[in-house]
Amino acid sequence: MNTGFSLMQSGLKLAISRSYSKLPSELVVFMDDQMVVCWHPEQPFPYECSKPLPAKKPEVDTVLKVGEKDVKEMFTKPKKEMLPIELAKITYTCKHRWYPRARDKKRVITPPDRPYL
Question: What one-character-per-residue DSSP string does 76-114 give?
């Protein structure tokens, strides 16, 4: 029984003294079986891994100022759904005027049976 007790005590000592962190042993203190006190100092960040802050472009407040959004709108192709709406705004009409009529699509042009008519 003495040997079992001594083995158990040595196992407890190993478990208590074992550090599961990569910090030096003086930074990790095992108070008892239920409490561990650790001190984690702030790690210095290497300068080589940092990036400079992006420089802000000064905004010019002029009457002739053209933004990137306006330029992008001018040179992008509009969607088919937006075309009648834009045409209606330009011509001050309703959007339905710019949709094609279904009866024109269904119309079949048949040649006359008598060419002299």
Answer: SPPPTTTHHHHHHHHHTS-GGGGSPPHHHHH------SS
**What is the structure's pLDDT at 64?**
66
pLDDT at residue 23 in the model: 56
Q: What letter does residue 63 receive in the DSSP assignment?
A: T
Angle 89-96-79 (CA atoms, 0-180°, nearest 5)?
Answer: 65
pTM score, whole prediction: 0.30
DSSP for 7-43 reads: HHHHHHHHHHH---SSS-GGGEEE-SSS-EEE--PPP
Phi-psi region of 34 (alpha: psi -120 to 50; beta: other; left: phi over 0): alpha
- Cα(78)–Cα(40) distance, integer angstroms: 57
The amino acid occupying position 68 is: E
| CB distance 38 to 23 below 8 Å | yes
